[in-house]
Amino acid sequence: MNVSHLGQASPPLRRLSELRGPAPQRSLDARALAALAANPGCRRRALLDAAGVDKTALAQQLGRPAPFGQSPFAIRRGLQFESRLKRDGYAVLLAPLRRRLGVPEDEALSLAVPDLLPSASPAVRAERTAAALAEAAADPAGWTLLDHPLLRLDVAGSPAYLEPDAVVVHAGRCTVVEIKSFPVLDGSADPANVGAAARQAAVYVLALQEAAARLAGRPLSAGPYAVQDLPGAPELTVLLVCPKDFSSLPVAVPVDVRRELAVTRRQLSRMTRIDQLLAALPGGVTFDLARDASGTPTRPAGELAAAVAAVPAAYAPECISTCELGFHCRSQARCAGAVEQLGRGVRGELGALRTVAEALAAAEQGGGGGPEPALEEGSGLDEAAERLVYAARLRAEALAAGGVR
Amino acid sequence: MSLLSTLARLEAVRAQRAQPLATVRHRHLSERPMVLVPLAAAGESGAPLAVLLGTDREAPRLHFVPQPLNRTQRWEFLAAVAREVVPYLESFGDEVELLEGSERDPVSGEKVPVVRELCADAPQLVVPNAGGVSHLALLGRSTRFRRTVEDPDPGEYPSPTEVPLLGRWLTHLTDRAQVPGSSLLLAMTGLLSRHWATGQSNLEDQHLAARLAWHLPPAGLEPPAVGAAAAEWVESARDGDGLLLHPPAGPATDPKFDERVLAPAILRHDAAVAVRERAEAARDGAEVRRAAGLVEQAHAELARVLLAATLPTWHDVWRGLDLLRALPAAGHLPDRWEGDRWSFTMHRDRVAAGEPPQPRRDDAVTAARKLAQREREQARLEIQEALDDPLAMAERRLAGEAFAGEVVDVVPEWSAGRSPKPRPLLVVRTDDRPHADPGREAHRAHAEPAQRAEVVSAAPGEVVVRLLSGMGRRKDPEPGSVPEPGTAVVFTLFELAPRQSAPLPEPADTPWTHGGPPVAVEDAPAGGDEWE
């Protein structure tokens, strides 16, 4: 449990821990936060993440396990790549930073790499990181590299722990370093990958901004684009480190994350406060898997599904690639005949028509009566339904003309 | 996604079966396509693992890299693939049509007649999905600059001579695949998406087997079924070992497969090779023979697991081709296929002329040309599809860009002037709601010759247009050129011939605003940094 530093467990925290049951708490990572920020309307995910429920195990017990995993080849290559970065005193990371900060190439460089107690509990690690960060920020001349620091960020009223790959501190400012395995090919990388990395890095920058504000005892500035002028404040440009072309040689590229930072801040602030979600929850709901002595979950899937169903989800097909419960929510959306199963845009196209059956019924309303669509005033059809009738007529006509049916 | 395709998806949900999005086939399908199912090694971009390929559905051929990190084995793999793919591609270069044309002589400025060759047919590669296309593009990029033993400076690790040639072809084909409506390299998921809607989202449609499960029951599912449940089964059903019953279509493999099947098999192969090397070093004949047996065994085991990982997808691609072949071909396919034949012929000529491989980055003029070509082809494709397919035209009618109806009255009128020309008014009864403001130009679809008109008035249910051309040169219109009352007509508010874009300068005349004429940059020798 890592709530000890908050003093007495407050009622919401106690309730969250009840939701989780005796299982160890899963802390939110930046990837999860970025996914959550991409779908801020999903109360189910917000609550499960806040409670630190092991969603992978939950999805497994619900009968629709998450399809995520990492190939051993990818892991091995990732480790190999990171070890390359550490050669020659992190020269690959420091050279582009020095260029950006205008530090002469020949100036001697003493790099401090403080021990951040990697095997301690999250709360201890976060405290240790904060101390190391404050110490490094106070030294104007030295260079400090925080290897896998742990940062705390409060998300919708519950703490999340984030672990950037590295943070480099120099002259009272720090820079987030994000190491990725996709290549920079001929000077450009896949925009989807870069976007995902930038969103993830923006979460780290936000956490560092909050840390710097906490340290200085000042509130976080209101404008998301404002550069903080505090010791230990993060740069709004992060360093993305990727393999160059087809080699395993690293190349570091600065990426401006101001826009992603603004989006993340806005999305996180929009997230429903956890206490409100808890208040809306019926009593007695828990996501405890009731593991027996051997660690096998014994909670019946039906009961668990009912507990999960007590929190509304905002399913979209994108969830399948980001959320462990994606398959479960999809099957629920399909059972309910929700139009979201066809994609996010479909909701907007169909207006007030929320289910497949409703939409098809609306489309056929005009189709039976003959070629003239129901256009009369006061027919009770809204604009979306009217267009649907028109589309259905055109489709039937075209299929008949094409001889398909 | 338009409302019409949303409607088709809704119908597919209800029917639990794919629904048509086209009444004809909008892409050319070759009589003799080559299907490729490529797999990539995880963790390294563009690193090949295996490919199952061939032109004979019954006889796919597997090539693979026993140790994906071993560069020599990678070159051997690529050379083997090149020996399959390049002869297939080049086999289309022999039979040519001779076309007479004229060209302006650069010196004298006079027109001189020339005879140009156009290959009678062109190759067609089919991969399972868009990921397959990008994987081939990465392979092309990583191989086309390789130096071979024939180079004056072969470098430390020369590659077999076929490899850079394969790279240039793959680069050309993947580049051409970016041109809308082209068919030299096709992704099966894209083909199916163009012609049918499923009851799931676009995102899920990227999974070839899941997509196909809306057409045909997937192999191995008992009892046979189609629709959402079948799609979910191919996406996620696993056996007792946690392995997917239907492997993904690649190029990425399932991580569980990597962990439980592939990694141990590679390890065993590596171990057998190590034993053989030790025995060879010790000059122990009996041990070398035993170790060679072990290597062979491990190699066969790898071949077995990789075949099992690609064969289901191989069958899926062919089943997809069957579905598409059952559709009648669209009328404009020969026209667009000719563009592909030109593209193929021109690349064949560039290779034969010994031109250097495509550069890493296009210069400004080439990039602008490519972009202009893609825009032009996109416009042409949209027009041709609308003319070929009532469903595609329905999209345009729904958008208010076209209207169909029946001619209810024809009012003969003539233009003023010394030699009056026919300018008849057509009253068209239509249930469509076109954005037809008076004075707007309209075009009659399927008119031969092309017929232009002008909107005179538009009221709900009725549009009046005045025909302006396509009626001959006399005072009275040619018989049959003006539709009689009762004729069904379609008018479009978009032009039926794509506009030509403004000409672009030669690369040597690139203006300074675009970086000036390209400087011949010495491409960094490709050997060194790559794939180490």
Automatic annotation (TrEMBL), chain A:
Name of the protein: Secreted protein
Organism the protein comes from: Kitasatospora phosalacinea
Domain of life: Bacteria
Annotated segments matching region Disordered: 1-22
Automatic annotation (TrEMBL), chain B:
Biased composition (Basic and acidic residues): 429-450
Region Disordered, residue ranges: 422-450, 500-532
Full protein name: Uncharacterized protein
Organism encoding this protein: Kitasatospora phosalacinea
Organism lineage string: Bacteria, Bacillati, Actinomycetota, Actinomycetes, Kitasatosporales
